[in-house]
């Protein structure tokens, strides 16, 4: 009978607050881990939950560290105050990358920004005869369109050079100096291929052309010049 009286459930009353500000915590979950009973705090942080001496009660509130307290004897009817501290926020891992991976990308963006207005200028449509004729006759307008054409052509060349570089070619072929320059001049990479090829395809292209280069070089060495008749 004594054991039964000790184990008799009682109503445990309390108030849950922020440990720093003392503000009441609304909507926190209070759980008796033995009975699995759960209640939530009201707008003033108050709660009431049944329990017996020795029961463990957990306090869970979003943004706060979870705490566990044990119901002690002699606290029936006493409203206790509990305080939770905010938990440290664990951020997801973020990899910071450079805006531009290559020098070409950075310089190309700078050039595009510098000549934005000039490159945005468009030729007049033939549907507007006056403007169309003005474009054809104006020396300044012709110079603008010539600059646009040359600018796009140079950008294509710079892009190819950024992928088909002497450093990469040297690392794959071992060529250097004039021989390297001659090889890259002889085997020029098309712009469309440089734009669409993966890094693996790019390397394969250089190696394939290098094998062809070696074969042709050996063939030239084996050519016997005719003897001098004099």
Describe the structure.
The relative contact order is 0.08. This protein has helices at 2-6, 103-114, 116-120, 129-137, 139-163, 166-173, 177-186, 191-196, 199-222, and strands spanning 10-18, 29-32, 38-40, 46-51, 56-60, 67-70, 80-84. Helix 6 (166-173) packs across helix 9 (199-222). The protein is built from nine helices and seven strands, in the order H-E-E-E-E-E-E-E-H-H-H-H-H-H-H-H. The protein folds into three domains: 2-84, Carboxypeptidase-like, regulatory domain (Immunoglobulin-like); 97-163, no CATH class; 164-222, no CATH class. Helices cover 45% and strands 16% of the residues. The protein is an alpha+beta fold and 230 residues long.
Kindly report the average pLDDT value: 78
Which regions are unreliable across 5 or more consecutive residues at pLDDT < 50? 1-6
Q: What's the alpha carbon Rg, rounded to whole Å?
A: 40 Å
Name the CATH architecture of the largest domain: Sandwich
Mind describing the biggest β-sheet? 4 strands, antiparallel
CATH class of the largest domain: Mainly Beta
Helix content: 40-55%
- For the termini, the CA-CA separation is 136 Å
Summed up, the helix count is 9
Order of helices and strands: HEEEEEEEHHHHHHHH
Domains, number: 3
Q: Give the class from helix and strand content and strand pairing.
A: alpha+beta
CATH homolog superfamily of the largest domain: Carboxypeptidase-like, regulatory domain
Classify the fold: give the CATH topology of the largest domain: Immunoglobulin-like
Number of strands: 7
The coarse overall form would be: elongated
**Portion in beta strands:** 15-25%
Strand order of the largest sheet: 3-2-5-6
